[in-house]
Amino acid sequence: MALRVQSPGALSTVQDLGRVGYERFGVSHSDPMDAFALRAANRLVGNPANAAGVEFVLDAPVFQAERDCIAACTGYGWMMEVKGRSVGSWRAALVRRGEVIRFLPEPETAAGPTGAAGWGYFAVSGGIDTPPVMGSRSTDLRARLGGVGGRALSEGDVLPVAPAPLDLRITGRWLPPHLRPAYGAEVTVPAVPGPQEAVFSVLSYAEFWEAGWQISPTSDRMGCRLTGTPLERTTEVELLSEGIAPGSVQVPPDGQPIVLMADRPTTGGYPKIATVAQCGLPLIAQAMPGRGQVRFEVVTVEEAQARWRVLIGGLETGVVDDGEDPAY
Amino acid sequence: MSKLSLRPAGDSALLVSFDTGGQIDLDTNLRAHALAAALETANQNDPMPGMGEAVPGYATLLVHYDPLLTGYAEVEARVRACLVNDAVSLREPRRVEIPVVYGGEDGPDLDFVAQHSGLSVEEVVHIHASREYPVFLMGFTPGFPYLGGMDPAIAAPRLPAPRSRVPAGSVGIAGEQTGVYPLESPGGWRIIGRTPLRLFDPLRAEPFLLAPGDLVRFVPIEQAISPLEGG
Questions:
Q1: Chain B: residue nearest A134 by CA?
Q2: Which of A23, A240, A273 to mutate to test the interface with B (most CBs of B within 10 A)?
Q3: Which of A105, B99, B137, B197 makes a 20 to 30 Å CA pair with B70?
Q4: Mutate which of B5, B11, B185 to disrupt the A interface (most A C-beta within 10 Å)?
């Protein structure tokens, strides 16, 4: 079975949960920007969490299904349309052979000059079956690894889909909003202080947690660039290059923090004032430029882990079978 | 003995830092590699679900873990146990020879480096090829080694403007540093030679010829006839 790419969208890439185990060789982890959304999309269509889907942003792709399948769209602000009928978001829908799948911005999120929706995720039963590279189907655009030839989708691409039994019982099931991350125009992002919080001035350290930060339009899969009061250090010592954790908030000499995201480099030498927690990554990822502010809140490692486990647990147990497939 | 700290880097990694006052120090770097080796051995003998990869820096080791499967306290306990044993894990580094065609089309900046150093081309090659270079860490791009220990006598400034294409396998000098480009990329290094070895092949069972902690020696060869796989 395959999906034909009728229209590629602005930046649509095949992603799974990332390329694990090669960071010490300089290979970026290439996560999804919003890992929770991809996990949820997979859960809804009956895939394992690490099945590959398609991540998209700004301008969505258009697919045509070669065979009957179950599909779902998650993320922030996108809804799926099958054969011209809206099936909403965070909901599994049946797609019949030959039907066209589109994604449209949800009306409620429409605001701001740069558009409404954030990163969208598409999963199909069986999972996208491009050849894994070093154990992952994630696309590393810089190193040109994985996905479809290491690049974003193009018109005419044919995405292979692994075979899967068609389970009609799961069509119509959905994940209620209270079990999703607290996406919004203004978000509060949980972060663990450090590891290099001590190099910042007392005032700047306080400023980081108290200020509202704007997301710069230059943000991309490598990092969310924040604009606001420049943060100052008390020491001039350059940090020797060290490994980079996901969500690291690094502060270059210009004092404007960058939250390192999906295509982050594996090592770097800028000090990190805080590190966004796993449960906070979807929130910062989906905070789009031109909309509200982002604030950070201090959490301990234990609190952060507890919140992430609750979110993932909700995915396991909270999917609602309402038995009604909105497409039919 | 350098100060040691263990701290969380978010909720999915633990950062081990050895304090060297910001200086690159080989012994400290070897300690980081020894700890990584000890963690790997421990995980083989007593697997810990959720324990992830350990990524070395110059004076650090970042230990990744999956917070759905384990917690910071457990990871810290495992790291501390391995720190006790890491001196035992300090083992002979793996030595890797990299054959290099120096100069000519493969080394367009070799003449510049010679002139800049006030040495002959042969002397530059001899100096470059006579040392063993530790791989402190890898990063920046897949397979790129941060090598230490180049003789400052052949140091040379970067190009005023980078080339848009530096061929894969190019060996270069930038300031007091030497290195190899595993993939074709833009670059501002002075290119003195090229290796026919494919340092990074994503489809190979072992994609990387080099690893952090290795000792690299460059071996001058005559013109390569065909690309070698290198094992």
A1: B202
A2: A240
A3: B137
A4: B11
What is the C-alpha to C-alpha distance for residues B167 and B93, in angstroms, rounded to an integer? 28
pLDDT digit string (tens) for A44-92?
999 999 999 999 999 999 999 999 999 999 999 999 999 999 999 999 9
Residue A202 in contact with partner chain B when CB distance is under 8 A: no
Q: Are B83 and B76 in contact (CB under 8 A)?
A: no
* pLDDT, tens digit, 9 for 90 and up, residues B54-99: 999 999 999 999 999 999 999 999 999 999 866 656 678 999 999 9
Q: Is B100 left (phi over 0), alpha (psi -120 to 50) or beta?
A: beta
The mean per-residue pLDDT over the stretch B131-137 comes to 96
Average pLDDT over residues A178-194: 94
At position A8, the amino acid (one-letter code) is P
Instruction: Find the Cα–Cα–Cα–Cα dihedral B161, B165, B170, B174, rounded to 10°.
Output: 20
Whole-number pLDDT of residue B86: 61
Chain B nearest CA to A129, separation (Å): 17
CA distances from B180 to A298, B104, B174, B205, B223 (A): 42, 17, 11, 21, 18
Say if CB A71 and CB A95 are below 8 A apart: yes
Predicted structure pTM score:
0.94
Q: Per-residue pLDDT tens for B88-132? A: 566 789 999 999 999 999 999 999 999 999 999 999 999 999 999
Choose among B62, B73, B60, B67: nearest CA to B28: B60
Identify the CA nearest to A95 among candidates A28, A171, A39, A10.
A171
CB pairs under 8 A between A and B: 149
To test the contact with chain B by mutation, choose from A136, A196, A266, A296 the residue with the greatest count of B C-beta atoms within 10 A, namely A266
By the 10 Å C-beta count (0-12 exposed, 13-18 middle, 19+ buried), A185 is classed as middle
What mean pLDDT, rounded, does chain A reach?
93
What are A272's strand-pairing partners?
A: A250
pLDDT band at A282 (very low <50, low <70, confident <90, very high): very high
For chain B, say whether A85 makes contact (Cβ under 8 Å). Answer: no
Q: What are phi and psi of B160, to 5 degrees?
A: -60, -35
A45's enclosing H/E stretch is helix A35-45
Minimal-distance CA residue of chain A relative to B183: A143
CB–CB of A112/A144 below 8 Å?
A: no
> A301 CA to chain B: closest CA distance, Å?
5
Measured from the Cβ of residue B188, the count of other Cβ atoms closer than 10 Å reads: 14
Residue type, B20: T
Q: B62 and A301: CB-CB below 8 Å? A: no
